[in-house]
Amino acid sequence: MGSDGSWSNIKSQLFSDTRLLDSLKNYDVSKTKGDAAKRAKTKMYKLISDMGVGDGPELQKLINTKNVATGGLYRWCAATLKCYDIYKNVEPLRKKAEQMKKEKEQGEKELAETEASLAALNKSLAELNAKKKEKQDELDELERKSQEMTRKLNAASQLINGLGSEQIRWTGDMKLI
Questions:
Q1: Residue ranges covered by each domain of the chain
Q2: Helix 68-176 crosses helix 34-51 at what angle (to 10 degrees)?
Q3: Which end of the chain is more exposed for a tag (fewer CB within 10 A), N or C?
Q4: What pLDDT score does 134 carry?
Q5: Are 29 and 80 spatial neighbours (Cβ–Cβ below 8 Å)?
Q6: Using 50, 70 and 90 to split pLDDT, how confident is the model at 5?
């Protein structure tokens, strides 16, 4: 509004702006600077103390008795300052929520990659376990055959040893005959 904060300067600038109503309706609270909000609050509090009434319906009624348009502008200013205070509290939370959403998405992506890796490892493990069982079965069969052959070898050795003593007896019998 310029550096001159006098009512006459403000009034002339407000009334010369043909888009004032649209500007007020479409005002973006997020673009409000902290120092501008502070100045506006200071002026609002000064107005409240100068009028000698509390903030709220009494002040609104008093302003409306002076000028209805000014009452509407005051109501807009008060509502905008409340919106600014809410925005000031909500905006960091919104940014934190966005950051948390990004972290969640990154975590979900990493989880999907880990689950895919785990599935591949489980598949590989299942294949290896199947091969291990196959080889173990083969080993068990070979051990069974080895034990059977060892038993047969031992039986054959006993037979040969038994026949060796029979050979001596037969040789003796043959000499007699």
A1: 7-116
A2: 140
A3: C
A4: 97
A5: yes
A6: low
* pLDDT higher than 50, residue 67: yes
How crowded is residue 167: how many other Cβ atoms within 10 Å of its Cβ? Answer: 11
Say if CB 22 and CB 33 are below 8 A apart: no
Quote the CA–CA distance of 129 and 135 in Å, as a whole number: 10
95 in helix, strand or coil?
A: helix
Residue 147 has a CB neighbour count (10 Å cut-off) of: 10
CA angle 50, 55, 56 (to 5 degrees): 135
Model confidence pLDDT, tens digit, residues 146-160 = 999 999 999 999 888
Rounded-to-integer distance, Cα 94 and Cα 62, Å: 38
DSSP state of 33: -
Q: What sign does the dihedral 149-150-155-156 (CA atoms) show? A: positive
DSSP 53: S
Least confident of 20-34, 97-111, 137-151: 20-34
Q: In which residue are the tokens 């509390």 written?
A: 54
Strands of 63-169, DSSP E: none
Cα angle value 22/27/28 (rounded, 5°): 150
Tallying the residues shown for the chain, one arrives at 177
Task: Quickly count: other Cβ atoms within 10 Å of residue 74's Cβ.
Answer: 19
